[in-house]
Write a structure and sequence with these properties.
Shape: elongated
Strand order of the largest sheet: 1-2
Order of helices and strands: HHHEEEE
Structural class: alpha+beta
Helix content: 40-55%
Largest sheet: 2 strands, antiparallel
Number of helices: 3
Radius of gyration: 14 Å
Distance between the termini: 19 Å
Length: 83
């Protein structure tokens, strides 16, 4: 699943699809599944949507993604994503 998300981010950067539907076509995946994953990425601040009427264009605005996932919850560490 992580690799699918990373591939999706890279495709958006490279292909600059005009909508969620076009993104699903480019990656040859179900529109509903792609929409859910893009919504999750938007909630995390990894992508954002540029809205044009009913069309939502996914945008990746960074060149590098650093993910920090500490594995010691007892220390009060939390996972963070920093674009």
């Amino acid at each position: 699943m992580l690799f699918e998300l990373l591939d999706l981010i890279e495709i958006i950067r490279q292909e600059e699809p005009a909508s969620i539907n076009e993104t699903a076509r480019v990656v040859d995946r179900d529109v509903k599944n792609v929409h859910e994953e893009l919504s999750r990425l938007a909630q995390l601040g990894i992508i954002f949507f540029e809205e044009d009427g009913q069309r939502k264009r996914p945008i990746v605005w960074f060149d590098e993604l650093i993910i920090n996932l500490p594995f010691d919850p007892a220390a009060g560490d939390t996972a963070a994503v920093a674009p």
